[in-house]
Amino acid sequence: MNIGIYIYDNAEVLDFSGPFEVFSTASRLCNGDTPFNVFLVSETGNMVSARAGYSVLPSYGFQNHPEIDVLVVSGGGHTDEMKKHHVIDWISKQSRKASMVASVCTGVFLLAQAEILNEHKVTTHWEDVADLRKLFPRLKVVENVRWVDEGSIITSGVISAGIDMSLHLVSKLHSNDLAEKTARQMDFVWTKNA
User: pTM for the whole thing?
Assistant: First the structure.
C-alpha cells in the first residue's frame, strides 16, 4: 500500500516525520512482508525547507510519484499552500483516487480548501481551531481530541497527534497487533481514544 505524505516549505517537521516513522517501522516489523511503502511528495520534488530550516529531499514531485493509496497532508505554515491552485487541485485529485486521506495538524486547512471536507467532523491544532471555524464554518470542528475518524478521512490535532493517528491507520489498514508492536518498537505511548 503506497502511503504518500505531502510536504512543503515550512511544513512542521514532526507532522511528516512522525507518520513516516510509524509506517516505515510497521513495515520493518513484518518480517519480509512490506505492507506499507511510505514516501514524501512535494510540489516539484526538489529540496523542501521545513520549519526552522530543516532541509528535506522528497522522493517525488507531483509529476512522477507512484499511485497513492493513502494520502497524508502535513501541517505547518499552510497559508501559502492554500493559495496555490495547482497544489489544491493536486490534493483534490489524489484524494479522489486514494482509498483514505489524512491530515496532521493544520493540514486539514488544505483538505478543506480542496473541498474534500464539507460538513465533516474534523480536528486541528488547538491554536488554529478558531481560524478553521471562521474559514470553513460548515465543518464540525472538535477540540481536545488526538484525531477524528470519519471513515475514509481522518484528521489529527496537535503536532504529535500525527503519530497516534498513523498508528490508528496501521490498525485500520493492517491490524491492531501490528500497530501495538509499532508503538512498542518506537517506545511511544499510543493514545488510542479519539
Answer: 0.96
Residue 179, Cβ neighbours under 10 Å: how many? 22
Note the pLDDT tens digit of each residue in 49-86: 999 999 999 999 999 999 999 999 999 999 999 999 99
- CA-based nearest residue to 90, from 71, 103, 75: 71
* 149 touches 168 (CB < 8 A): yes
- Work out the end-to-end distance of the chain between its first and last CA atoms, rounded to an integer number of angstroms: 24
| The pairing of beta strand 48-50 with beta strand 54-56 | antiparallel
- Which residues are CB-neighbours of 118 under 8 A, at least 6 positions away? 138, 139
Report which residue type is found at 110. L
Alpha helices in the chain (DSSP H): 13-28, 79-82, 85-97, 107-113, 129-135, 161-173, 176-185
Distance CA 182, CA 26 (A): 5
Q: Any residues with CB less than 8 A from the CB of 11 and at least 6 apart, and which?
A: 48, 50, 51, 74, 75, 76, 77
